[in-house]
Amino acid sequence: MKKGTKALITAGLITVMLCSCGKNESEKEAMTEKEKTEVTEGVNETDKNAAGDVTGIDKDSFAAGIKTEDETTTTPVEVTPEAQGGDGTETTPTVTEPEPTATPIIINDEIEERCPASISETRKGVTYRAYTHGTYYSETCGMERGYSILLPADYSTEKQYPVLYLLHGIFGNEYSFSQDASNKIKEIVGNMAADGYIEETIIVCPDMYATADPAQKPGFDGDSCLPYDNFINDLVNDLMPYIESEYSVLTGRENTYLAGFSMGGRETLFITLKKPELFGYVCAISAAPGIVATTDKFMTHPGSMEESEVKIAEDAIAPEVLILCCGSKDSVVGQYPKSYHEMLEANGTEHIWYEIPGADHDNNAIKSGLYNLFKQIANSKNKK
Ligand code: FER
Q1: Model confidence, pTM
Q2: What is the pLDDT along the chain (384 residues), one digit of tens a residue?
Q3: In testing the pocket of ligand 1, which one of 62, 228, 263 has its CB within 8 Å of the most ligand atoms?
Q4: Phi, psi at 284, each rounded to 5°
């Protein structure tokens, strides 16, 4: 490859990588209270370029999945919560048109490699609530930390809901998923609940970078990755108790789900291996390397476990369902997710592994993983 071409590609990559997902602290502070509460979707071009000039890393594509061609660009039907902060105050959603007949899906334990269009599409008859933003005090980090939350459209304190904790990729934060309308998370959970396949479910999107030092920033080196592995403490000791006290949630592993993409997939698997009794349903999508020692194109990972430890002990209470998946054309994490599958298999831990044909490190993988997680939940819970 010519030098100039290479430089051009590098510059392009840098610009893409610095997209909106990784708003830094000063940017966050500059947001108005209204902006903080009503998390808007879509990419902010100003943030993109500012970030691009500073770090030279394509944060967006890592944090929340690269948008791909087969994804639709329809605008979601939004309910704008008037006064809904992190306290779960009720709102009155407006449902507009009669519900079209959705193409039924068959609930069984089989994996469908792609999320059906009828599940990820924006339906006129289904109301989707907007994500909101809140904060909690983290003893683990010694500071107030943010999270985005997607409540069911008709959230009511009269009811209680299961909770999915959804973890972003490297360079991401609590806005990574909520600001990317093309991941269709709202549609997938909203449609599957509207169709009656799953219970209405709360989705919590934390900031997974659990550092006690506000000056510390993520990067491709061992030290700057440590806060990601520290998130287990923040999640279990700070965020989960906070969510359980502030929102009307069902508790216990049957009602507590964990999923994540890339770096979030790695931490999803890591947390599940360490605390298997806490989560009933788990999906690690395109899990990044680093749980065990390895060197990839980005960095050398010291690893925090031996390959032989990548397992759930036979006598442990394990998730009902543990899914690992990855796009067949993943250009970022490559064969690492498959290697985790192979370790789990070698170590006798029951799990589901599949590849998403044609998907890269992108939202097609995220949509597929979340759809299959909810489908497994539907199958498992209906059976009982
Ligand atoms: C790595 C490869 C990929 C890595 C992290 C990632 C920390 C994460 C990618 C993402 O979150 O999109 O070697 O090391």
Answers
A1: 0.82
A2: 433 433 333 333 333 333 333 333 333 333 333 333 444 444 333 233 222 222 445 565 677 776 654 543 333 334 433 333 334 333 445 555 545 567 899 999 999 999 999 999 999 999 999 999 999 999 999 999 999 999 999 999 999 999 999 999 999 999 999 999 999 999 999 999 999 999 999 999 999 999 999 999 999 999 999 999 999 999 999 999 999 999 999 999 999 999 999 999 999 999 999 999 999 999 999 999 999 999 999 999 999 999 999 999 999 999 999 999 999 999 999 999 999 999 999 999 999 999 999 999 999 999 999 999 999 999 999 865
A3: 263
A4: -100, 110
- Position 118, amino acid: S
The kind and range of the H/E element at 366 are: helix 363-383
How many Å apart are CA 19 and CA 28, to the nearest integer? 14
DSSP 161: B
Using the mean position of ligand 1's atoms as its centre, give its distance from the Cα of residue 155 in Å.
Answer: 35
Whose C-alpha lies nearest to ligand 1, atom 14? 220
Residues having CB within 6 Å of any atom of ligand 1? 62, 169-170, 220, 225, 262-263, 288-290, 296, 298-299, 332-333
Q: Calculate how far, in angstroms, residue 230's C-alpha sits from the geometric centre of ligand 1.
A: 16
Calculate how far, in angstroms, residue 336's C-alpha sits from the geometric centre of ligand 1: 10
What CATH number belongs to 61-382?
3.40.50.1820
**Single-letter code of the amino acid located at 46:** T
Spatial distance between the Cα atoms of 81 and 373, rounded to a whole number of angstroms: 28
Cα 366–Cα 369–Cα 373 angle in degrees, nearest 5:
140
For the chain, domain boundaries: 11-57, 61-382
The structure tokens 């939004």 sit at 78
